[in-house]
Design goal:
This protein is mostly helical and about 120 residues long. About 80% of the residues lie in helices and about 0% in strands. α1 runs antiparallel to α3.
Length: about 120
């Protein structure tokens, strides 16, 4: 398995854990990040969507879909920008930015791995 595929697979595992937490015990996770608890179904719907993303990431990594890996770099980087905007607009507490930092860290890992793999192909 390539380094870029490994980075995406690790991110898929993170998404799996996050999705399970949001589906099974969302308020426990929200409390850790000082986000107001909710009894509404939306948080579990978000968890289900995160689980679907985990499935896509995991299987793309297994299949070595480097084009998918490249797409995720831009998408995961944008998450931090959106979360910062939500905090600045007063829609969310600053702790939400921590989730965006995880996304950017994973995106950087994937981007560096892709760059290294491209360098090996041309050498």
């Amino acid at each position: 398995m390539s380094k870029s595929a490994t980075s995406v697979k690790v991110f898929a595992a993170y998404l799996l854990l996050l999705g399970l937490a949001l589906v099974l015990s969302p308020n426990a996770l929200l409390r850790v990040f000082r986000i107001a608890p909710t009894g509404e179904v939306w948080i579990r719907v978000v968890g289900m969507l995160v689980l679907v993303l985990a499935f896509y990431y995991w299987n793309a990594a297994r299949a070595g879909l480097t084009s998918f890996f490249r797409w995720t770099v831009a998408a995961r980087t944008s998450v931090l920008l959106f979360f910062i905007a939500f905090v600045v607009a007063g829609y969310a507490p600053p702790t939400l930015i921590l989730f965006g930092i995880v996304d950017v860290a994973g995106a950087v890992w994937t981007a560096l791995a892709l760059r290294g793999e491209a360098g090996h192909r041309t050498a």
